[in-house]
Amino acid sequence: MLFREEPKRKEHENLHNFNFNLPEMICRGNLHRTSGPKSIAPTAIRQCVRLAKSSDLWKAFLRTFPLGVSPQKMEHVVSEDFYHDDPIEEASKTKVRSKFLSTAVLIVGSIFFFQSTLAGNISMNSSRGIEFGQGVSQAVACSGETALTLTPRSTFINGSPGAHYLQSVTVSNIPTSCYGDDFTINAYNDSSSTPLALFNATSTDAVVYNNNGTFQKGKGSTGLTVSSGSGAFTITFTNPVAQSSSIFKLTIQSGLHSVYRVGERGPGGGFIFYVNNAGFNCGPTWSARCNYLEVAPNGWNGGSDPNLVWGNQNSDSNVTNNSNSDTSESGIGLGYKNSLALVSQNGDGTTHAAGAARAYTGGSNNDWYLPTQSELNLLCQWARGVAANVALICNGGSINSPTYGASSAGFGGAYWSSSEHSMGSAWRQLISSTGGVQLWSKDIASLVRPVRAF
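The chain above was modelled as a monomer; its predicted structure follows.
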């Protein structure tokens, strides 16, 4: 019987070291493959190895082939590989050992290479690790006992050096109990409670609105796209800025819808008729910033819109007079300040236009007011299904048009604005006819519909 030469001690030691450092070797190889050797932090490797050794697959591997086996025992295992006259026995032992080692590497490798990179290992609202490309379940406020599944994905972007970035997130298994809510997704590193910027260089909140099962972009959503599916959506960042290797935790929250679109119900129970993402001045002193105008719903006064006088015909209010029809952006959001001046002049009763508007508290809000001519012009365009343009006098379309969601608005006639012309007259807006504005005597009644800005 001929024996093969026993492998050298160095070869045994290498095999032992390979076995002992197998998780670190795989981690380093994976991290080098995805992030480049220059960008790998020692903490990333330690985290990778720690996660590997704590996994069920690795523990199963240890039970079969323990880490840290002595070089002598490893040498014994290898040195038993010998040659003799029986080819069947030789093939059997060799194949078993080869298959064993290959399977061990495959088991450990599968921990790391499933769809993505451990460089982007993250957790969602907990300490559980997940990888890019893998989904993890998490319940949110609106879902009750139903767990949503969140799946992040990364993309490689060339640079100096290039790196992987969080490019998209898919959320699925969303129940109908989440209708009408916003989902907000944030990312964090492992050393700060401040969210990381995800897109647009500085945007940290990725907000998606669940509009009765149709998912749409939410507040501050410029710079991302939303793909809507059945009980699921995917957000994709046009210019992602969060590196995968920097993300330690990804969170998802549900909450009340705070971003509105034209035609939707507003927080005051009315309808959103104007949206300005850039914002406009508003508030009692015209110094706050707002993005939306909301009109009170039909029946806000317990019936049809009231016919009321504008105010005292023989005195000038503190409202800046508009000797000419003014439909400019400077009038958007100014109605609150105007209305306070009119109430100061005419009293806070509901027998005049501004007083009645200010007395309305729809949605438990006390910031309703009589709109300016500019605001009323935008309201007329919405009600008649005409594209919003504050600089153009409302004209055309049809009253209570469904085009922008005004089919149940219930407008009819001419409505007072809070824009004064002179001591004896003010401006009103024709909504039920073809549109347009009129100069009208303050002591002759016209219709009233409150609005609010927020």
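Residues 1-20, 30-39, 56-130 have pLDDT under 50 and may be disordered.
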